[in-house]
């Protein structure tokens, strides 16, 4: 419950246009200090949980092990983690491409799901809680690669989870 409260608090901050991406280029030590705030840590943890759920626990764990083995006693950058995950997925999923849309964009998407009979359509747009005129910028080009999981009436959540990657503004 405490973790959920932290996530919702971070999402509230991230839904403001004055938010910042998790990863960005810095020019000064002050900018480094600004980057490492609660938003970065909580959003980062949430994104890792999202990735773990999408890849499955075993694949995610194997990717972490490769990352730790390849970079023990050294320094890294975020791409190193995504490259380790790509190594484990054998090119079936471009984890780096997926995750860059999350760490380089500020904010998060609002996904709208519409059902018409047996057809489902999904659409994404940037979610803004409150537009602050002094910090407003157009984010119409924002596009996330959103891993969606779902179940049908032919299976239950534990045994038969289906996955879909929404990497366009809308999809079916």
Automatic annotation (TrEMBL):
Quote a single Gene Ontology cellular component term: extracellular space
State the UniProt keywords alphabetically.
Aminopeptidase, Hydrolase, Protease
According to the UniProt entry, its GO molecular function terms are: metalloaminopeptidase activity; peptide binding; zinc ion binding
Keyword Transmembrane helix attributed = no
**A single GO BP:** regulation of blood pressure
Peptidase M1 membrane alanine aminopeptidase domain residues are: 5-102
Q: Does the keyword Hydrolase apply?
A: yes
Task: Name the chain's protein.
Answer: LCAP aminopeptidase
Q: Which organism is it from?
A: Casuarius casuarius (Southern cassowary)
């Amino acid at each position: 419950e405490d973790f959920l409260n932290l996530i919702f608090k971070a999402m509230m901050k991230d839904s403001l246009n004055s938010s910042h991406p998790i990863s960005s280029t810095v020019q000064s030590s002050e900018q480094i200090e600004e980057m490492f705030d609660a938003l970065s840590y909580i959003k980062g943890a949430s994104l890792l949980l999202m990735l773990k759920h999408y890849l499955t626990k075993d694949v995610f764990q194997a990717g972490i092990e490769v990352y730790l083995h390849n970079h023990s006693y050294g320094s890294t950058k975020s791409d190193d983690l995504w490259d380790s995950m790509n190594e484990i997925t054998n090119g079936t999923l471009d984890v780096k491409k997926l995750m860059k849309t999350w760490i380089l964009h500020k904010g998060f998407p609002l996904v709208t799901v519409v059902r018409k009979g047996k057809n489902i359509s999904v659409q994404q747009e940037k979610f803004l809680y409150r537009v602050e005129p002094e910090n407003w910028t157009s984010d119409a080009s924002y596009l996330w690669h959103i891993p969606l999981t779902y179940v049908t009436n032919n299976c239950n959540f534990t045994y038969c989870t289906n996955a879909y990657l929404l990497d366009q503004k809308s999809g079916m």
